[in-house]
Amino acid sequence: MENIVERQIMWGDLDALGIVFYPRYYEWIDGCGHLFFEALGLNIGRLWKERNILFGLAETSCRYFRPGRYHQKIRICTRIEALERKTLVLQHDIRNVKGDERMVLGLEKRICMDVSHPDDLQAMHIPADLFAILDRARPSA
Amino acid sequence: MENIVERQIMWGDLDALGIVFYPRYYEWIDGCGHLFFEALGLNIGRLWKERNILFGLAETSCRYFRPGRYHQKIRICTRIEALERKTLVLQHDIRNVKGDERMVLGLEKRICMDVSHPDDLQAMHIPADLFAILDRARPSA
Amino acid sequence: MENIVERQIMWGDLDALGIVFYPRYYEWIDGCGHLFFEALGLNIGRLWKERNILFGLAETSCRYFRPGRYHQKIRICTRIEALERKTLVLQHDIRNVKGDERMVLGLEKRICMDVSHPDDLQAMHIPADLFAILDRARPSA
Amino acid sequence: MENIVERQIMWGDLDALGIVFYPRYYEWIDGCGHLFFEALGLNIGRLWKERNILFGLAETSCRYFRPGRYHQKIRICTRIEALERKTLVLQHDIRNVKGDERMVLGLEKRICMDVSHPDDLQAMHIPADLFAILDRARPSA
């Protein structure tokens, strides 16, 4: 399963050189991670409120291939790159809609957390029902 | 009472024209509002956790006099402009440290809220002890 | 003429109370201002590169009616509120798609600027061809 | 050489769980990269305007050890992790001032770019004078 989000690069995303200021890519990637869960029927707001589960960040990275510029339409494809007992790696491939050239390749390693006590977040095994949903969504599946 | 915060304009604050992207001013103003409360001995985190009180936004505005540019040091002076039973207006005067020229004049009208039920925020009278602290901090006082 | 943009409130837009952190509204409003110009056939990137004209900010404001929350779909309607020789006021009405309740009413007063010399921005009369396009786009027109 | 920046976590840095929204770390890291250059006598604004050189991003990453929370004071130590003909890796170590516990370890791989033609950025060898300054600033040096 792949989730695809399109958006347009806006003035406020640019730096003084007229190219995307790189923390913006991480904002979009975070949003696409949430929408990927949503596309699997897993609403993160409900997981939190009803089951005290959130997928926090263990590690993130981006490689930058081409700069994003004003007004370009971009496409972000999100898919599972790896799935383990407690962790999930999402890959986010950001491309220029025009020409399909890759701009950025982002990774988020997310860890399943028990957030019952917000002041003391604990890593936990991904519950079996969620694991099954994520497992079926893997590209190889 | 006036609270003064200094900061430097960074690359990530700029737009493609090389001047500050205006939502950044609001981020700084929000931060300076919190530090103003802090300077009065009112920690917003504790007001929330211990008394279920937060000062939410009813209205904000900024007038822009001169653009902020890379690397400039700015000074933000925050003071109470008005105080009523439920509301407080903070004025934030943002100036270039070099030359003391005004860049931005911002206002935040904040309203006292009972946040016991996060899904149903309610306006409330500012409690007497907080009102007294704020009243003493007014410039005329 | 009214330009309408829909978007969804994302995790990264929220503050610790679970409601939209208000500078985000200004980021969206700025984007909707650009898209409003675009809908009139005025691409801001081209105005800048080809004619050295940008519409900078003189004043912005927002009034907050209801908090935005995770995952809500919002609709932002942008229209001209006032048009003068050098300035333009855009009104941005932000509503919850579900129920059509107003969340935020934002204003941007933008001033026409000659940006030939980025270090010395100058206010200027709105050129006649642009003024005519903006004038026809007024709600009363 | 190590450059140290201290800052305080503000309300607007938090997500709905009350911990820092991770793209904020990248904004701070970017700023600390600029301040690191500055501490070496290399003002990025002048490198750009006078020599058409900027250090763009090839890759960034962060590992998250502990969540940042409201009002905490953090310390960001920046140093050179690697230096090659065209590229530079900066390491940013973000710690809680109280207790000196690591929160985040960030890396930025920056590539020297000729920005004479903003629409066609080109990688280039780091000029000898800049390379010498960076080389002397390495921790081993």
Note down, in words, how this protein is organized.
- The structure is a homotetramer of 141-residue chains.
- Chain A is α+β, with helices and mostly antiparallel strands and 141 residues long.
- Helix content of chain A is 24%, strand content 38%.
- The first copy, chain A, contains three helices and six strands, in the order E-H-H-E-E-E-E-E-H.
- In chain A, strands 1, 2, 3, 4, 5 and 6 form a six-stranded antiparallel sheet that branches.
- In chain A, a hairpin with a 5-residue loop joins strand 4 (87-96) and strand 5 (102-114).
- The termini of chain A are close together.
- The mean pLDDT of chain A is 96.
- Chains in contact: A-B, A-C, A-D, B-C, B-D, C-D.
- At the B-D interface, helix 1 of B face helix 1 of D.
Any chance you could write out the topology, listing elements then pairs?
4 copies of one chain form a homotetramer.
Chain A: E1 3-8, H1 23-39, H2 44-51, E2 53-64, E3 73-83, E4 87-96, E5 102-114, E6 122-123, H3 128-136
Antiparallel strand pairs in A: 1-3, 2-5, 3-4, 4-5, 5-6
Span between termini of chain A: 9 Å
Q: Any idea what the shape of chain A is?
A: elongated
How many extended strands of chain A?
6
Give the strand content of chain A.
35-45%
Order of helices and strands of chain A: EHHEEEEEH
Q: What summary fits the major beta sheet of chain A?
A: 6 strands, antiparallel
Our count of helices of chain A gives 3
Please give the radius of gyration of chain A in angstroms: 16 Å
Oligomer: homotetramer
Biggest chain pair interface: A-D, 25 and 25 residues
Structural class label of chain A: alpha+beta
pLDDT < 50 stretches of chain A: none
**How much helix, percentage-wise, in residues of chain A?**
10-25%
**Overall pLDDT metric of chain A:** 96
